[in-house]
Amino acid sequence: MYINVCYRRKDVSENVPDNVVLLYQVGRGPCAPSSSPFPLKLETFLRMYKIPYVNDHSGQFSSKGKTPWIKYNGVAVADSEFCIEFLKRERNIDKEKISPFLKATGRALQKLTEENLYW
Questions:
Q1: In what order do the strands lie in the sheet with 6-7?
Q2: Signal peptide: which range, if any (predicted)?
Q3: 53-56 and 69-72 as β-strands: parallel, antiparallel, unpaired?
């Protein structure tokens, strides 16, 4: 179940049920994901693992001064990669049967893309 609603109010965090991710990201189209790669990565992860989430496009930045970031059951996490790792631990979904070689290859490609091909 996706709870993909765009909020622009500051009190949105009071309306999010338990076990639903509150995803803070820059604005996007009503039917299209963000054109920024890091919110796109995080939102794609949420959709792939069918994690319910609510978008907040109020422009609120994380403690690091960046977006995207999340709140999950009262815990704020900044940086898309930290958010994904946190959700994997919290929801116990890192049970992929992938060989260490394939995990390493995927990690290398991820870092190449995010650090060297971005912009």
A1: 6-7, 53-56, 21-24, 69-72, 75-78
A2: none
A3: unpaired
Q: Which domains are present in the chain?
A: 6-116 (3.40.30.10)
Q: What six digits make up the tokens of 29? A: 């189209």
Rg (CA), the chain: 15
Tracing tokens 């870092």 back to the chain, one arrives at 111
Q: Which residues contact 111 (CB under 8 A, 6 or more apart)?
A: none
pLDDT tens figures, 78-101: 989 999 999 999 998 876 677 889
Closest by CA to 45, choosing from 19, 82, 8, 97, is: 82
The model's pLDDT over 102-112, given as tens digits with 9 standing for 90+, comes to: 889 988 988 88
Label the pairing between strands 75-78 and 6-7.
Answer: unpaired
